[in-house]
Design a protein that fits this description.
Elements (H helix, E strand, L loop, with lengths): L1 E7 L6 E8 L2 E9 L8 H18 L6 E4 L7 H20 L11 H8 L7 H12 L8 H16 L8
Parallel strand pairs: 1-4
Antiparallel strand pairs: 1-2, 2-3
C-alpha cells in the first residue's frame, strides 16, 4: 500500500488530497481546502494555510509514502509571491512532523497530460479523470480538491504505481 499526500497550492484556496494505492488501484481517502480572504495580509493568510495544513496532516496520521505538489511558474513577482508564500506555509507545516516533499513539483501541464491525456485539459475534465481513476463518488467542494487528487495520481502514473485509464 502507498499513501500519497498531494497539494494544489495557492494562497487564496489551496487544496490537498490523500490517495491510497493498493494493488494498482487508487482510492481517495480525504480531500480538503481552505479559503483565505484577499483583503487579509499575506502574513495572516499564510498562517491560515499553515494551520489548515498542520490540522490535515495531524488528522491523517502524518504517515505518507510520498508528498507531492503541483509546480507554479508565474509571470511576475505579483503572481509568484502569494503562491510561494503558501508553499512556505505548507513546507513549515510538513516540517512540524519531520516531513518533506518527495521530489520536485510536477507541472500543471504534466499533471493534465498524465491524468487526462492532454496538457491543456479543463477543470471539469480533470475532475472527471480523477473520478474515473479512483471511483470517487463524493463531492469536491472546489476544483482545488480535485486538482490536488490529480497531482497525486500524476505522480503515481509517472512512477508506475497505476495506469492512466482515459
Amino acid at each position: 500500500m502507498t499513501r500519497i499526500l498531494a497539494f494544489d497550492t495557492s494562497l487564496s484556496s489551496p487544496g490537498v488530497a490523500l490517495i491510497e494505492i493498493k494493488r494498482n488501484k487508487p482510492r481517495i481517502i480525504a480531500v480538503s481546502h481552505v479559503k483565505t480572504d484577499s483583503k487579509q495580509s499575506h502574513a495572516l493568510r499564510t498562517q491560515i494555510v499553515y494551520a489548515w495544513a498542520v490540522a490535515f496532516i495531524h488528522e491523517h496520521g502524518a504517515k505518507f509514502d510520498e508528498i507531492v505538489r503541483e509546480d507554479f511558474q508565474g509571470r511576475s513577482s505579483v503572481q509568484n509571491h502569494p503562491v510561494f508564500a503558501a508553499w512556505s506555509a505548507i513546507d513549515r507545516a510538513l516540517a512540524e512532523f519531520n516531513l518533506n516533499f518527495t521530489e520536485k513539483p510536477i507541472s500543471q501541464s504534466k499533471v493534465k497530460r498524465l491524468v487526462v491525456g492532454k496538457g491543456k485539459a479543463e477543470k471539469d475534465e480533470v475532475e472527471a479523470a480523477v473520478r474515473r481513476l479512483t471511483g470517487y463518488t463524493g463531492e469536491f467542494a472546489t476544483d482545488d480538491e480535485s486538482d490536488a487528487a490529480a497531482v497525486a495520481l500524476a505522480w503515481a502514473i509517472e512512477n508506475g504505481l497505476i495506469k492512466r485509464c482515459v
